[in-house]
């Protein structure tokens, strides 16, 4: 059931009144009567859509105000654990190749890439992970200047 279904009785009364008026007034007023009825239906639909949008925006503002984020189906412990395992498994051949070809600099580059990929993954699953402390410290220093 949609939000408009609750108004079915009223719409049915409006339609019956429009049909009755058409019978009484004749065919020459049919277009005006149909337009009037459709305008009322449009107003009801617009009102229902507006209420739904307001409710969704209020829910969104509540989520933002609380500082919580909605559950993400891909942000699971299994995904993070699996990514870490795959990363470590791939680290072995990457270390061997980097160290075998370019010795210590190659090994450092390989591990920098591994750490970089894991840092990007961590930032993707935890958006405030790397920027949270800076934002708090800059606010407190700004507050200190205002006093």
Low-confidence stretches: none
Helix/strand/pairing category: mainly alpha
| Average pLDDT metric | 80
Largest sheet: none
What percentage of amino acids are in beta strands?
Answer: under 5%
Roughly what percent helix? Answer: over 70%
Over the alpha carbons, how many angstroms does the gyration radius reach? Answer: 32 Å
Q: Helical segment tally? A: 4
Shape: rod-shaped
Overall number of strands = 0
Q: Termini separation (Å)?
A: 57 Å
Order of helices and strands: HHHH
Features:
single chain; 147 residues; mainly alpha; 0% strand
Summarize the structure in words.
With 147 residues, this protein is mostly helical. Helices cover 81% and strands 0% of the residues. It is built from four helices and no strands. Helix 1 runs antiparallel to helix 2. The longest helix has 49 residues. The protein is rod-shaped and about 95 Å long. The two termini are 57 Å apart. The model has no long low-confidence stretch (mean pLDDT 80).
Task: Offer a quick outline of the entry.
Helices cover 81% and strands 0% of the residues.
Task: List the SSEs and their pairings.
Blueprint: H1 8-25, H2 30-66, H3 77-125, H4 132-146
Helix pairs in contact: 1-2
